[in-house]
């Protein structure tokens, strides 16, 4: 009767009465033992199991005390009546007991990466877009900055006092971004969160109602799409060409509440937004009463010339929320990003940030402030700019050599990934799938389009050694064919 249920393990280190108790309890819980089923008497079970009667009695006493079995003098113990549930009811009960996400939760749990990545569960692979070079990370300087931070930060900063961000980092960033990116920012307007994704998520929730309209570059960043979709926004495509996002012809049924753009380095195409287009976008946002979310994720390492002025500094400062991250210039694992919000919104959004628990690690923030102030950050950026430029060039040259007219790809103007176009007879998602089996995690360009029909690949180059590039191009030649 208890075959397969009560196989005891004498080497488990768990007392035998406890093992018997747990196994019977589990079997009742998952219905292998039905309600009212008879159990062996303690004498019989002790004989079957080769244990003392006291051992079985101890287990039965525990089960009886919890109401899992009923023990009556002179009768065999039985599994307790479970409220007279019949089989069908029980099945239903089991189903409803399996935890489920809510309707709202379904939106929050949707993985938009499936559109671009062959295997979104796979979190890492060679030539992955968005991955900075681990071998360029200044481990020693960073370790020293972290050590200083761990030794010197004290008081309220280590508790919850500075939930919007560690004040010295907010000051350093205000000064650095005003100088380098032409933004308008007081330290109080800078909120520090773990990721840009967290910023986008929070902003979409705080600044819109479900059903509101949001414009998103087409093709555009999947993280922004996820944030907008989970806030229940209607997403309107903002077309992109070589001059960046073009708002001139967009006529959405309703005016947008939010407009997401990547002006200094369009994601995923990699172009810059022209000055005309930037000024025009600010005008459109003003007319609509919309806020522009300017994602400036990698402008600090454009390879030639200075990055274009930030949109945020072009307008009055109130039309734009500027977003930056250390996930590209340092490492995603630092989990530090920031946003500059209009003064009137800084207080309320900081409270929402605290309510959502989107707070940055204080030691990391202190180390970053130190890193920026001491000039290490600037030196690090200079180094990675050179390395990334060389890797990007090599990637393009090898792709062109290996695939000839089967691929169309330009030298990247900066950043850590590039977009390449494929001919119409090649299916980019099939290529991405084949590449995954060889350990490469490229993304399919088609997955980033809303209305735009695209066919190509997004390829990371920053973390690629020469051997990775050669192996990747060889695998691509096999996957695409040279025509
Ligand atoms: C356009 C763009 N913005 C933001 C980010 C991510 O920043 P974070 O890791 O801080 O969310 C990425 C990462 O790939 C990105 O491509």
Automatic annotation (TrEMBL):
Q: Which residues form a coiled coil?
A: none
The cross-references to PANTHER family, in alphabetical order and at most eight, read: HTH-TYPE TRANSCRIPTIONAL REGULATORY PROTEIN GABR (PTHR46577)
Query: SMART domains in the record, alphabetically?
Result: HTH_GNTR
One of its Pfam families is: Aminotran_1_2
Q: Which family does it belong to?
A: In the C-terminal section; belongs to the class-I pyridoxal-phosphate-dependent aminotransferase family.
* Keyword Transcription regulation (UniProt): yes
Keywords, alphabetical: Aminotransferase, DNA-binding, Pyridoxal phosphate, Transcription, Transcription regulation, Transferase
Q: Which terms in the Gene Ontology molecular function aspect does this entry carry?
A: DNA binding; DNA-binding transcription factor activity; pyridoxal phosphate binding; transaminase activity
Tell me where on the tree of life, at the top rank, the source sits. Bacteria
Name of the molecule in the record:
Aminotransferase class I/II-fold pyridoxal phosphate-dependent enzyme
Residues in domain HTH gntR-type? 14-82
Kindly give the InterPro entries that the UniProt entry links to this protein: Aminotransferase_I/II_large, HTH_trans_reg/aminotransferase, PyrdxlP-dep_Trfase, PyrdxlP-dep_Trfase_major, Tscrpt_reg_HTH_GntR, WH-like_DNA-bd_sf, WH_DNA-bd_sf
Keyword hit for Nucleus: no
């Amino acid at each position: 009767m208890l075959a397969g249920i009560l196989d005891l393990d004498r080497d488990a280190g768990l007392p035998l009465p406890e093992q018997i108790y747990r196994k019977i309890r589990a079997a009742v819980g998952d219905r292998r033992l039905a309600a009212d089923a008879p159990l062996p008497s303690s004498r019989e079970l002790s004989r079957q199991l080769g244990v003392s009667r006291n051992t079985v009695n101890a287990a039965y006493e525990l089960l009886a005390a919890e109401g899992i079995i009923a023990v009556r003098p002179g009768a065999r113990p039985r599994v307790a009546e479970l409220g007279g549930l019949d089989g069908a009811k029980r099945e239903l009960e089991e189903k409803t007991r399996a935890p489920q996400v809510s309707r709202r939760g379904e939106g929050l749990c949707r993985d938009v990466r499936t559109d671009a990545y062959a295997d979104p569960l796979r979190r890492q692979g060679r030539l992955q877009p968005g991955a900075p070079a681990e071998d360029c990370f200044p481990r020693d300087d960073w370790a020293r900055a972290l050590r200083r931070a761990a030794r010197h930060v004290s008081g309220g900063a280590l508790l919850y006092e500075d939930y919007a961000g560690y004040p010295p980092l907010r000051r350093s960033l205000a000064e650095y971004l005003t100088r380098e990116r032409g933004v308008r920012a007081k330290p109080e307007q800078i909120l520090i969160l773990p990721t840009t994704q967290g910023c986008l998520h929070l902003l979409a929730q705080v600044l819109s109602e479900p059903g509101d309209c949001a414009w998103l570059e087409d093709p555009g960043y999947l993280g922004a799409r996820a944030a907008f979709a989970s806030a229940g926004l209607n997403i309107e495509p903002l077309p992109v060409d070589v001059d960046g996002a073009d708002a001139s012809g967009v006529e959405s049924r309703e005016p947008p509440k939010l407009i997401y753009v990547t002006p200094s380095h369009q994601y995923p195409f990699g172009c810059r937004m022209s000055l005309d287009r930037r000024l025009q976008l600010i005008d459109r946002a003003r007319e609509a009463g919309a806020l522009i979310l300017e994602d400036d994720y990698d402008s600090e390492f454009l390879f030639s010339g200075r990055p274009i002025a930030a949109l945020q500094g072009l307008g009055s400062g109130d039309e734009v929320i500027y977003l930056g991250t250390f996930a590209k210039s340092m490492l995603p694992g630092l989990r530090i990003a920031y946003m500059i919000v209009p003064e009137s919104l800084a207080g309320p959004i900081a409270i929402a940030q605290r309510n959502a628990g989107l707070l940055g690690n204080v030691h990391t923030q202190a180390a970053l402030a130190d890193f920026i102030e001491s000039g290490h950050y600037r030196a690090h950026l200079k180094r990675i700019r050179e390395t990334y430029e060389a890797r990007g060039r090599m990637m393009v040259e090898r792709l062109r050599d290996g695939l000839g007219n089967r691929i169309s790809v330009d030298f990247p103007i900066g950043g850590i990934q590039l977009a390449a176009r494929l001919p119409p007879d090649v299916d980019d998602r099939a290529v991405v799938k084949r590449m995954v089996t060889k350990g490469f995690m490229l993304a399919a360009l088609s997955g980033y389009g809303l209305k735009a029909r695209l066919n190509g690949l997004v390829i990371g180059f920053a973390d690629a050694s020469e051997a990775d590039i050669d192996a990747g191009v060889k695998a691509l030649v096999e996957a695409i064919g040279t025509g």
